[in-house]
Design a protein that fits this description.
Helix content is about 35%, strand content about 20%. The protein is of the alpha/beta class and about 230 residues long. Strands 7-6-5-4-3-2-1-8 form an eight-stranded parallel β-sheet. The termini are close together. 1,3,4-trihydroxy-5-OXO-cyclohexanecarboxylic acid (DQA) binds next to β2 and β7. Its EC number is 4.2.1.10. This is 3-dehydroquinate dehydratase. It catalyses: 3-dehydroquinate = 3-dehydroshikimate + H2O.
Length: about 230
């Protein structure tokens, strides 16, 4: 994995770090969905796999399952763990001023911060997408935005915003969730998106419309993004 996200990173999403061997051939890293895991901090400290980790502790109000008051403290703890190369924190938490501890722990441990926003209802207007990504990019190393496409036009709006920001030199990661936008998961890297997500276990997708891992690797590979050595 390129820890700077200057190159595309394919993250295999899982709640179970023991699945790492199954992801090794196709993924650049694991996204550890702490919110979907049992005893996530214990699992992290026991982890001895080869793939580096992105730690995510997604809030229930942002489509995840973490609703406890230790959510951000646990994420900060994850940032202090050796195998963790990046953490993912919600833009809304950052703007509320709740994520300072997480961002500080990340920066102190040379861990990159992915600042993310999700829209499970639809695709905001192009200026709104650009605004959200620009705002996220002010606080993190990668600005990530997942929307729900309801039309092909929505997917073009997302890809166009992605292209604009990456051309300006911003590190962004974008994808459209759901069936209509599914192909953006393969195509967005062509327009500059730096991270793609696919579940290690196809039966346990972490978002609507995800391809299985081998398929996403093949698709992005065919479009020019190769797997990197760790
Ligand atoms: O934010 C994202 C992107 C995602 O929602 C997707 O659409 O693939 C999957 C999540 O696991 C990850 O944290």
């Amino acid at each position: 994995m390129d820890p700077t996200f200057d190159e595309f990173v394919l993250a295999a999403a899982t709640a179970d770090l023991s699945e790492e061997p199954a992801a090794r051939a196709d993924a650049d890293c694991l996204e550890f969905r702490m919110d979907l895991a049992e005893d996530s901090l214990d699992a992290l400290s026991a982890y001895d796999g080869d793939l580096p980790l992105i730690a995510t502790n997604r809030a229930a109000w942002e489509g995840g399952e973490a609703d406890d008051e230790n959510r951000l403290e646990d994420l900060a703890e994850a940032a202090r763990t050796e195998a963790v190369e990046a953490i993912d924190v919600e833009l809304a938490s950052v703007l509320e001023g709740e994520a300072n501890g997480v961002l500080e722990a990340a920066s102190a441990n040379d861990v990159r911060a992915i600042v993310s926003a999700h829209d499970f209802e639809g695709t905001p207007s192009r200026p709104e997408l650009v605004r959200t990504l620009t705002e996220a990019g002010k606080h993190g190393d990668v600005a990530k935005l997942a929307v729900t496409a309801e039309s092909r036009a929505d997917t073009l709006t997302l890809l166009s915003a992605t292209e604009q920001l990456s051309r300006q030199g911003d590190r962004v990661a974008t994808m459209a969730m759901g069936e209509v936008g599914r192909h953006t998961r393969a195509v967005a890297p062509v327009y500059g998106s730096r991270i793609g997500y696919a579940p290690v276990d196809p039966a346990r997708a972490t978002a609507p419309g995800q391809y299985d891992l081998a398929t996403l690797r093949e698709l992005v590979g065919a479009l020019g993004e190769r797997k990197r050595e760790n």
